[in-house]
Amino acid sequence: MIEHSLADIAQALANRRISSVELTALYLDRIARHDPQLNAFITVDPERSLAQARAADERLARGDTQPLTGIPIAHKDIFCARDWLTTCGSKMLGNFVSPYDATVISRFQQAGAVLLGKTNMDEFAMGSSTETSFHGPTANPWALDRVPGGSSGGSAAAVAARLAPAATGTDTGGSIRQPAALCNLSGMKPTYGVVSRYGMIAFASSLDQAGPLARSAADCALLLNCMAGFDERDSTSLDRPREDFARELTATTADRPLAGLRIGLPEQFFGEGCSPEVMHLVEAAIAEYRQLGAETVPVSLPSMSLSVAAYYVIAPAEASSNLARFDGVRYGYRAPAYDDLTDMYCKTRAQGFGAEVKRRILIGTYVLSHGYYDAYYLQAQRIRRLIADDFAEAFRQCDVVLGPTSPSTAFRLGEKAADPVQMYLSDIYTIAVNLAGLPAISIPCGFAGGLPAGLQLIGNYFTEARLLNVAHRYQQVTDWHRQCPPGHA
Amino acid sequence: MSLTLDQVHRIAHLARIEVDETEARRTLGQLNGIFGLIETMQAVDTQGVEPMAHAQDLAQRLRPDCVTENDQLAWRSAFQAIAPEAEAGLYLVPKVIE
Amino acid sequence: MKHWEVVIGIETHVQLSTASKIFSGSSTAFGSAPNLQANAVDIALPGVLPVLNRAAVECAIRFGLAVGGEVAARSVFARKNYFYPDLPKGYQISQYELPVVCGGSLPIQCGENEKLISLTRAHLEEDAGKSLHEGLGPTAQGRSGIDLNRAGTPLLEIVSEPDMRSAAEAVAYARALHALVRWIGICDGNMQEGSFRCDANVSVRPAGEVRLGTRREIKNLNSFRFLQQAIDYEVQWQIATIEDGGSIEQSTVLFDPASGETRAMRSKEDAHDYRYFPDPDLLPLIVDRQWVEQVRAELPELPAARRARLIADCGLSAYDAGVLTASLDLANYYEATLATAGKENAKICANWVMVDLAARLNREDREIGQSPVSATQLGGLIARIADGTISTSMARKVFDELCNSGHTSSADEIIARQGLQQISDDSALTALIDDLLAANPGMVAEFRSGKEKAFNALVGQVMKATRGQANPQRVSELLRRRLG
């Protein structure tokens, strides 16, 4: 069952070949056995999950089903889930039991999915390795001494190790796509505004977007069908007609199912900075796409080289303000000893936040402070515009932009932890997408030294269905995405 | 450009994060490394480019003026059950001096 | 001794009369138990987001039109970042670079002079919660209690230019603004409950100096009397400080009504660096012309226009017109009395509303909206005074009866029921006068010897004999004719 697609699992549940309770118990058992080595989960609560599974089985028995009814899903610990510990990977929220559900969580609840547990993540989603978590790092199931990527590393490791059929993540600068690449998964960041941010603990509000992490593009489409949709509680949620993101994934007998598709290859994705072994795999994937009928065209994203710089102004600026609510007054951690109110704030925040979070709050505070705003924050916003314009120009010449997701395969735990700049540069291929607000997906494209590499496909606004199809066609003719880490089959 | 130790202390205080001298020095080194990366932006001429604050060029949606809350007593209990210090419906903090 | 010029600008926080908060669905009603009107958004739980209340925006548009300002087609919400326990998010959502209303002006009446005060801007923002320092339980010693019921109440912050030159002008401005925001229905104006709060920026400079002196900002003045007292104190303090060789430091001060003094705030010790930036959770506010025109069409006639019309059409003095347009309710009441009494009686109506009715309301501590006499009743009464049916003194009795009647009777009914009509039948009056003159030869003699006092006494006798129902003017005429 653990290798089945979500659609097949749904079929098995509908046909009563397996119950949701059995399925949930199966995954809970796998978590109990494997998670001590991985540390992918922050919270697992078998009783509650099984209670939800029983409720799902009743729904299944009544025939009141939706595509995800009865399927256990793991959620990144950034999503508030009512009565569940929701820590966002931080000591600051180490005791925070959420009194309400995020919209994403309620959508899964309404669909009858089972909440399998809350997954590990970089503290407040700030990181690319899941090493900044207050709960300790998560290991990559493909090599336990390596990182799973981040910040949605717990979700990625859980799905890769078959501890969950699928999971949610969030992506501010690559936090779904990069762990997907490093763990051999398919992970999608939708167009900004497609998935509600309500109840998703904010890192950088103008960049954050939730999305699915799964074993195939087809699974991602099913998850996105559940997650996406207008939410009146989020001012940036887009009020668009409902769409079926799986609508283009129909069976085809065509030799060249992608005939007519123009794939843009930006020179900036194929220059220095990417490891040769990853580049080799990406080039092989391009050849595969030509076989599928796509044509490739050279495009250019001239301002992309500035994306990391602009991102490390905009994201910390927004974060410094978003994280001001963690002050020890209404919820979360409060320092045990202090002199007065100001001292209570300063000690609470010094003790409650980890080093990377504090670093980014300080950067953000600085770039917004008097006398520096124009030079940093406004300049970064102008560069953001240039980057978005670059993509707009590229999409006049192509339908999809293709490149590597991450410049390397999974690096060793601790390898970049001491050097923030090196860590930040591991997101060079993913950040521009968030700045522009575009949809993108990372899919497995092969292995180097036994470690998976990811291929990134970027689409124009609202082309999720097409992106998923482009990914799906590749997965119809390759089996990289079916590979399972040794010891987890 | 590079930051000074004084600036690190000032922004840490603005952000209400206590830092001791050792931490401030270490932070100073790291921030200067990061600002080295950020400074690459300064070489770009962006005159006439409209700053982009949002990922979408849309207008704010407006909510009808309706009260949507009920059962506030139960909600307050739920909210204050997770508060570090609350009494008689109030959140308590060290005395505020105006 | 040097002459000093006082320069005052005022920032006013006006709570908007919406049912729900500016960014959440919590109620804005005043006076509930602590934190019962603070939902997940108001207490800033992790992950919650703001959505803008349409009614708050409409209030801002209405204000912009009422002061002749420019309603911005596009304005932007920004975050003002600072830590304070009554500010749950650690930032206040406000407008900074692009406010919803720019410019405009407000006429004020100071003594006999009218002056136009320019407005800089008006912007939408959210109110903060409240910190309570007293009345906490015994286990809360040395603590402050935080109540977030007020957090997120919509505010329109209205900023004036530094156009006022005295505390009296500042108060006149605050009164005019207070009247206007109530007039156009965007604020209940309840100052005790904090619906209308002023910050006064005060500086002094030697007369003739062009540059502004350093200002101090007096925070949170919630009565006109405190505004007056605080500015008076602040001005003399600043002058004394400078004359003693000191200098003024830009700062924020609080007014202590008990001592009547201002003092610098202790809490905001660090340099203000609010790190404003556009709120990424809120998109730009777009107000299209159609909406503005629709609001304009629904706007009531404004106080200045109403004043001008009362002067031109009804012949009222500027003073009377000013008093009668102090609030929309009062102006509407006055015009309703005119509708019954007739426009030709505008001045009598004005006097009755401003004197007799005002005294009664004042005594009973009522607003015009709760008047014991309806405008139709009062207008009916005034019509009977004007056509001579009753005397003014009789009218006062009828007025009292009307007040006690609970809106059930008309003046005519009371006059008929109690037989209070004036005797205007000349033959009856003449007969009465003749009897009286015959009975009082002494007084007649006194009058004839030139004592005017005796004439008045005779009039009094007639009035007494008619139990006040005679028209005193007519009595005088007939009496003179008889005696002449």
Overview of the structural elements:
The complex is a heterotrimer of chains A (489), B (98) and C (484). Helix content of chain A is 38%, strand content 13%. Chain A contains 15 helices and eleven strands. By secondary structure, chain B is mainly alpha-helical. Chain B has a domain of 38 residues: Histone, subunit A (Orthogonal Bundle), CATH 1.10.20. Chain B is flat, with a radius of gyration of 23 Å. In chain C, a hairpin with a 2-residue loop joins strand 8 and strand 9. Helix content of chain C is 40%, strand content 20%. The mean pLDDT of chain C is 91. In chain C, helix 7 packs across helix 8 and helix 7 packs across helix 9. The chains are: A alpha/beta (489), B mainly alpha (98), C alpha+beta (484).
Kindly provide the radius of gyration of chain B, computed on alpha-carbon positions and rounded to a whole number of angstroms.
23 Å
Q: Helix/strand/pairing class of chain B, anyone?
A: mainly alpha
**Number of strand segments of chain B:** 3
Order of helices and strands of chain A: HHEHEHEHEHEEHEHEHHHHEHHEEH
The CATH superfamily of the domain at 6-233 and 463-482 in chain A bears the name: Amidase signature (AS) domain
- Give the biggest sheet of chain B: 2 strands, antiparallel
Q: What multimeric state do the chains show? A: heterotrimer
Q: What labels describe this entry?
A:
heterotrimer; B: 98 residues; mainly alpha; Histone, subunit A; two-stranded antiparallel ribbon; 3 strands; flat; C: 484 residues; alpha+beta; Arc Repressor Mutant, subunit A; 3 domains; 18 strands
Secondary structure layout plus pairing:
The complex is a heterotrimer of chains A (489), B (98) and C (484).
Chain A: H1 6-14, H2 20-38, E1 41-43, H3 46-62, E2 72-76, H4 103-110, E3 114-119, H5 153-160, E4 167-171, H6 177-183, E5 186-189, E6 209-214, H7 217-227, E7 262-266, H8 276-291, E8 295-299, H9 307-322, H10 341-352, H11 355-368, H12 373-397, E9 400-404, H13 420-425, H14 431-436, E10 440-448, E11 451-459, H15 464-477
Parallel strand pairs in A: 2-3, 7-8, 7-9
Antiparallel strand pairs in A: 1-3, 4-6, 5-6, 5-10, 9-11, 10-11
Helix pairs in contact in A: 2-3, 7-15, 9-11, 9-12
Chain B: H1 5-14, H2 21-38, E1 62-63, H3 72-81, E2 86-87, E3 90-94
Chain C: E1 4-15, E2 52-53, H1 54-66, E3 70-71, E4 74-75, E5 77-81, E6 91-95, E7 101-102, E8 105-110, E9 113-126, E10 130-132, E11 143-147, E12 154-160, H2 167-183, E13 196-206, E14 216-221, H3 224-243, E15 251-256, E16 261-264, E17 277-278, E18 285-286, H4 289-298, H5 303-314, H6 318-324, H7 328-341, H8 346-364, H9 375-386, H10 392-405, H11 411-418, H12 426-439, H13 441-448, H14 452-465, H15 472-483
Helix pairs in contact in C: 2-3, 5-6, 7-8, 7-9, 9-10, 12-14, 12-15, 13-14, 14-15
